[in-house]
Amino acid sequence: MILTLIAIPILMALLNLGRWNLGLRRIILTIGALLMLALSAALAVRVDHQGAVTAMNGSLRVDALSAILLLTVNGAAAAAFPYSGGYLEELSVRQAIAPREIRRFSILLPLFALMTTLVPLLNNLGLVWGAMEAATLAAVFLVAFYRTEEALEAAWKFLIITSIGSLIGLVGTLVFFSAAATIAGPETYAGWTALLSLAPRLSPGAITFGFTLVAIGYGTKAGVTPMHTWMPDAYSRAPSPVCALLSGSELSCAMYIIFRYVPIAERCVGHVFLFHLLGGIGLATLLVAALFVVAQREYKRLLAYSSMEHTALMLLGVAFGGPLGLFGAIWQLMTHAFIKSAMFFGAGNILLRYGTTDMEAVKGVLSRMPVTGTLWLICTAAIVGAPPFALFGSDLSIFGSAFTHGHRVIGALTVLLLAVIYIALFYWVVRMVYGEPAPMPEDGVASRDAGVWSVAPMLCLAVLALALGLVLPGGLRHLLEASASLMR
Amino acid sequence: MAISQGATFCAVTFLITVFGVLGSARFEPCIAAYAAGSLMLGGYAILISLATGYGHLGVVAALTILVKAAAIPFILIRVVRRLGTATEGHLQIGAAVSLIIGAILTVIGYAVSGRFAPGLGSFYHSGLAAGISATLIGMAFVAMRRQALMQLLGLLICENGTLMIGLAIAPDLPLIVEFGVILDVIVAVVIFAGLALSIHEVYDTTDTARLSNLRG
To answer: Do A144 and B211 touch (CB under 8 A)?
Structure first.
């Protein structure tokens, strides 16, 4: 089953090598992504029933935490792939895109999905690094898709800053390797599980250093301060389905890798170190996100800073620790990926109609695009963690963990900064959604709401966010709890 | 003894090539210095392989020399030729200042190398210290240069430094990991080069100072 999961995106990429029209590519991408999601779900059920599943002599391994990430990345992809088809179609009505560009886009998309699927599957920290880096490389041309000055600038910044981040992460990985090598043979320490069992005997000095590098290095891809500067640029200039994948899949993968290192560091050097490091990084990131959300003028950049805020919350959840904090962090990882993807879909639909990312210039979305506008408003409520949406539960778990572990000041500060971000986010979105729309040329394209392919993925994700907030299925809850206990 | 001296020689020469890149304003000497540094990295891998008996390091050395001392410099030289004279490096931060920054980072590299992997034999220490210094200098180089290709060279130096650290502190790293890293690097270079050419097409320069539309 694991090997089939890897084969599907490869097959999708190969099929898209052909010179088909967009309609066929869209069907290939949609069916492939849905199959990947179905297989991930089947794997998750199996892990829930019988524990970790392995393949290829243990080189590939799925446990509860990797099952959660598989569901997350493939859930986001299952929405983003059909949306991409709709987005490209609407885009080609408005401006000329060479078939070559569409072909490259639809080949790179499944390759990106392949890499983000390999990250949770691989049971070797070195290879996980390779898969993460390859995902970034696949994303570069997706970010540069429009080939405008700004798109190229964003892609260049993305490449340079995340490459430095990943080299920092690689040095951190090497430090873990070397710490393990000094007490065990070369064959035994390559996997997460083996490294975890060695953790109490590793050199605390080396692990302190290595984990700091890992947190900053992989954190770069998740937008931690001060390595976040690529994020608003890439998110604002990349096509919206790519933003959804960067925020839904790549960010989640980076956080997952940090989560994997957490129990190793905790067993070796104790929780106080983790609290100081991740708490410090998380709080600084949250502060920067709050400042920029308040001062923001472009809605896609607004969403980028909102992603930073969620990265910060996940780190804070781990820093506060305990079953509640870890559960909250993992739950946040999953739900954020879904809802933020839906937000980017909405942003894409709006951008295609209004032709600008300037929030002052976008008014009356609800009256011009009733379906997109309504869904976008609902998704905004979901992303700020309003009850009854799923993010409400994860936010509450993280706050609960802060106060039960006696971190009152930091907990209160977190709540305060979140309140600022949420109020600002809502203020901007409400201003865009309501109000009188500026007169637009009635060319038959600009005046219509987005098509089914552009709206249905958004609707599915919004319904999912609501349903998961109302009822958390027993199996999923069990997997989340098992993941949280894997991180201790 | 001879192997140990050889390893130190490779590590030190590797660091000197990094300074060679740091002190030059023109692309081609920079690329040549990078190729020479990669050769020294390959030599270091061979010596570690001889000293430890890890046969797979021989493969790592061969791959390093083939990819980093030959293929990547070849690609880079071709990109430079295609871009023509418009891309002659113009230094924002002069060679002298760059070299001083490099010297400071080298001192830092040697100072922190003890903390990195405590209890490491002196045999590996030269490689570790040179690796950390090169990684730091590479990062500084990316920040100090504005030319897209120069920034790429900075990243490549950084990556060479990382590999040197890896050879010094984790020589028994599984081959597949090293293979993955090298594969990532070559893909990255191709993507970088493609992007640099696109930037040149759109902006008529690869000076990244022109890339300043996105703020805040």
So the answer is: no
Q: Which two tokens stand for residue A265?
A: 């560091």
Cα of A181 to nearest chain B Cα, Å = 7
Beta bridge partners of A7: none
ipTM of the complex: 0.87
> Is the Cα dihedral B206, B208, B212, B214 positive or negative?
positive
Give the model's pLDDT for residue A443: 56
Phi, psi dihedral angles at A298 (to 5 degrees):
-120, 135
Query: A366: helix, coil or strand?
Result: helix
Q: How many CB atoms lie within 10 A of CB B170?
A: 26
Å between A209 CA and nearest CA of chain B? 7
E-strand spans in A43-86?
A: 53-55, 60-62
Return the number of other C-beta atoms located less than 10 Å from residue B41's C-beta: 29
* Chain B residues with at least one Cβ partner in A under 8 Å: 115-119, 135, 139, 142, 148, 151, 155, 158-159, 162, 165-166, 169-170, 172-174, 176-177, 180-181, 183-184, 187-188, 191-192, 194-195, 198-199, 202-203, 208, 211-214, 216
**B180, A130: Cβ pair inside 8 Å?**
yes
Cα separation, B6 vs A475, in Å, equals 59
Residues 37-56 of A with CB under 8 A from B: none
Give, rounded to a whole angstrom, the gap between the first and last alpha carbons of chain B.
56
Distance in angstroms (rounded) separating the CA atoms of residues A433 and A365: 5
- Token pair for B99: 């070299």
**pLDDT (mean) for B44-64:** 88
A 300-319: CB under 8 A from B: 301
Say how many C-beta atoms besides its own lie within 10 A of residue B126's C-beta.
Answer: 24
Contacts of A416 (CB under 8 A, 6+ apart): none
**What is the percent of chain B with per-residue pLDDT over 70, rounded to a whole number?**
86
CA distances from B12 to B18, B34, B43, B127 (A): 10, 14, 12, 8
Residue B86 in this model has a pLDDT that exceeds 50: no
